[in-house]
Specification:
With about 110 residues, chain A is mostly beta strands. Chain A is about 0% helix and about 50% strand. In chain B, strands 2-10-9-4-5-6 form a six-stranded mixed sheet, with no helix packed on it. A four-stranded antiparallel sheet of chain B has the order 1-3-8-7, with no helix packed on it. Classes of the chains: A mainly beta (about 110), B mainly beta (about 110).
């Protein structure tokens, strides 16, 4: 099975900061990499699919990049509503696999 | 509106069994893969199992041999039969659609404890 290694597991950042989260796959996943945001007590919300395609309604400050086995989620200017946990997921083929998550907290 | 509604969670003793259901509406159920994803308290997301349109099922190693996913296309419903439960299976269980994993239901809580 493909393993997804996400880093960092937690980070502190300030409003306006540029935030980068990385996800590494143990083998190539044909760019079938998605990113989700989850706030406490809420259902995960999709942000990015196919490594770099923005889901409808997601602010443009979110972007995804990467290919092969290395992928990145970038928030260009962190907003108060962005403090949450973020997860990458390999959605190439079953079994699907999530990264361990990144909790973005207020500095 | 596409909707997924989970049910069947509850408190069960270690070694026990439970069957979860996921009722789907707003789309042609038989044409879509459906997955179960779980989240233990304070932990990350874990994909558990999926059943594709042909009826073939896939499982995470952590549940293989203990969990069985099935679907009833006539009832637009997905099931997860969970046997030999342990404390490590305590989690909110969500159902979600396709490889895109969207949308998600609100989840059903399974607690394994004596």
């Amino acid at each position: 099975d493909i393993q997804m290694t996400q880093s960092p597991s937690a980070m502190s950042a300030s409003i306006g900061d540029r935030v980068t989260i990385t996800c590494r796959a143990s083998q190539g996943i044909n760019n079938y990499l998605a990113w989700f945001q989850q706030k406490p007590g809420k259902v995960p919300k999709p942000l990015i699919y196919a490594a770099s395609s923005l889901e409808s309604g997601v602010p443009s400050r979110f972007s995804g990049s990467g290919s092969g086995t290395e992928f990145t989620l970038t928030i260009s200017s962190l907003q108060p509503e962005d403090f949450a946990s973020y997860y990458c997921v390999n959605h190439d083929s079953y079994p699907l696999t999530f990264g361990g998550g990144t909790k973005v907290e207020i500095k | 509106e596409v909707q997924l509604v989970e049910s069947g969670g509850g408190l069960v003793q270690p070694g026990g069994s439970l069957r979860l259901s996921c009722a789907a509406s707003g789309f042609t159920f038989l044409n879509h893969d459906i997955s179960w994803v779980r989240q233990a308290p304070g932990k990350g997301l874990e994909w558990v199992a999926a059943i594709i349109t042909s009826g073939v099922a896939y499982y995470a190693d952590s549940v293989k041999g203990r969990f069985t996913v099935s679907r009833d296309n006539s009832k637009n419903t997905l099931y997860l039969q969970m046997d030999s439960l342990t404390a490590e299976d305590t989690a909110i269980y969500y159902c979600t659609k396709d490889h895109s994993l969207y949308p998600w239901g609100q989840g059903t809580l399974v607690t394994v404890s004596s």
